[in-house]
Amino acid sequence: MVPSSAGGAGQGADRVARIVVRALDGHLRRVAATAYAVDAEASRARLRALHEDLGGRRVLLFYWIEDALPLMLGARLAEDLLRSEIAFIRDETIGGRITSGMLERTGRPVRDLRTTPAAARTRDVQDLICDPGWLGIAVDGRGPYRRVGRPFARLAARRDGFAIPLAARVDRAWTVRAGATLRIPRRGTSVTVRFGEPILCRSGADATLLQLVLQQGLDETVAAADRALRGGVARAATASS
Amino acid sequence: MAVVITGMGCVTPIGTGRPAFSAALRRGESGTRRLSRFDPGGYECQVAAEVVDFRAEDFMPLREVRSLPRVAQLAVAGARLAMEDARLRAWPDPTRVGVLLGTSGGSGSYQFEQGLIFVERGVRRMHPSFPAYAHNGVIASECAIQLDAHGPVFTVSSACTSSTDAIGLACALLEAGTVDFILAGGSDAPLAPLLFASFDRLGAMARRFNDRPEQASRPFAADRDGFVLGEGAGVFVLEKRERARERSAPILAEIAGYGATCDAAHHFTQEESGVDATRAVVEALRQGNLSPDDVDYVNAHGTATAQNDPFETAIFHRVFGERAPRLPVSSTKSMVGHLLGACGAVELAATIVGMHEGFLPPTLNLDEPDPACDLDYVAHRARPAQIDVALSTSFGFGSRNAALVVRKPDDAG
Amino acid sequence: MPADAVDTVVRLIAIELEMPEDRVRSATSLRGELGMDSIAAANVLFAIEEELGVELVLEDVEHLDDVAEIARVVRRARPTTGS
Lengths: 241, 413, 83
What we know:
The complex is a heterotrimer of chains A (241), B (413) and C (83).
Chain A: H1 7-34, E1 36-37, H2 40-54, E2 59-63, H3 68-77, E3 87-91, H4 94-105, E4 110-113, H5 118-130, E5 134-138, H6 150-159, E6 161-170, E7 173-178, E8 180-185, E9 190-195, E10 199-201, H7 207-240
Parallel strand pairs in A: 1-9, 2-5, 2-6, 3-4, 3-5
Antiparallel strand pairs in A: 6-9, 6-10, 7-8
Chain B: E1 3-12, E2 15-16, H1 18-27, E3 33-34, E4 47-48, H2 62-67, H3 70-85, E5 97-102, H4 108-121, H5 130-133, H6 138-147, E6 153-156, H7 162-175, E7 181-188, H8 193-202, E8 232-240, H9 241-246, E9 253-262, H10 275-287, E10 297-299, H11 308-320, E11 329-330, H12 333-336, H13 343-357, E12 359-360, E13 383-384, E14 389-396, E15 400-407
Chain C: H1 2-17, H2 21-26, H3 30-34, H4 38-52, E1 54-55, H5 67-75, E2 78-79
Antiparallel strand pairs in C: 1-2
Helix pairs in contact in C: 1-4, 1-5
């Protein structure tokens, strides 16, 4: 076993994260009772179709950290929206610890991506590259906000599979900046989860072009999800009036 | 893509034909002058970019000159010059030749003039051929008639992206094997009172430089004031690379990729996030299997309106990342004005001239850039440079976006 | 085979980072000086394991920042089972 991060600070952060996770979990449970899922059936159908096409391939679902908690909410409202075979990557940022903590509570597998020591990180990167299944990762967990970094593009290329942009958008949320930007859904929110077009990532591909394509793919998926959300909110408003 | 450009013809406010156009680009000449086509008094903007060294009779029989709308005359002249440039006296097989030209205003000016005649003097004083000339398709069909093209012939009308779209679609036709040659590009002759007055009323055109017309078009400048309306045509001969090699044709450039998208938002303004606009560029790069790092020069849409220039700058930042400040970007509209439907073609022509002859066309009148415009815009003077890959962008009314990527041919010649 | 291990490591790092071998040899910090990030490091480890048919043991390794340290890891390597 490669030594993990030096005891004290890591353990302290873990403790804080656990407390926050418990609180957020309870909060999301209450929000889920009053939340409205937009296009849930379409999203589930889309995921099924993607899984049919790409089930046996290496897939990297990637999303903005601000969509992580809305994604948890979406998963609560639609049981099979996040299949149990998707393993989410836990990095050592606050946002990463919180979201992976919440995922673990749902029984989903989590993969570590440690920061230090360098040898541990390298081994974790190797494991992610080789993982034959579907992985999920927040690409801007370490910042900059809503930017796909070059290291992620290189990781995606090296993995030699498909990257699928994922957006989870809510219309009522608190925005918290704690290193990363997190959006915490509020009661009465609408939520929509959208899977974008799979992007083929080939080993040896030009990283700059791939970075641009991944950025564009996620920007578009988020824009489309926001549009669907506005439409869904409008429909919900007319339905209830 | 395996499509190449083997000939270029242009009729512009800074010169007609590739040699004159190239020399003017190098010298950084301005084609914006005091409006002379009709009385400029009464308008806030009194400058325009007119074509001055063009005689239609040099390119077509006198009979045609009298009856054809100016937009069609410019198109035919551009097409003839392109064929000459491509060393084509006649087509090997006219049934495999197409014409695909873009225009925004089309024969609108002609329709307006004839409309006035109709109202003031009755139908008998109108042009008898009015129905044949009053549709925008006339610019493509007139080229087909005069130049013997028996294949697909159409006009594309998508506002300021018209000629870029025409060129992109032409590539698709060539790739599909429908034709062997296509005359592709665009033409626009919008200098007539109706359209000019409408733009003037919107305050969209530069108003503060009527006493210094050559300085009126100021893309990316802090004191830019709007665009300068212009007229002109740019036409290219497009063919597949293998065919060009077979006939030992001079290859000016390869078309690497084309992207076209729509914001589906507003008619006049671009959608803030720039997602769809960025995608047009990304698509064009992807088609050519090119990295943003491969691009050596960008010919921007750069209209000099308040909204476009910072918006476009933001897109280049998004696409080119950290490299953006070191990547030369210039706007040919600073010299030739805004040619509406023909701007894509004429600006591509400027890009290809720069690539072929080793210099960066400048952005004139950039005395002080807008703080939101922080790139290297090749201010004032052309600069020698090796351009292997270039990007040309256009944005049009209706929130359209189009991008072309061209590259130097391997066997440069 | 101490010399060989260093040669192999230098060669594979040079290929991954697209740099000449003497630059790799003379660098004091692969991360700081040559900009080798965790993905490049992962690729180098993959390449070593593949070429030598071994499994690298990274126990007690903290840094992976210089050629000598990586070469030590290579010498400790176990042959891959079933190779």
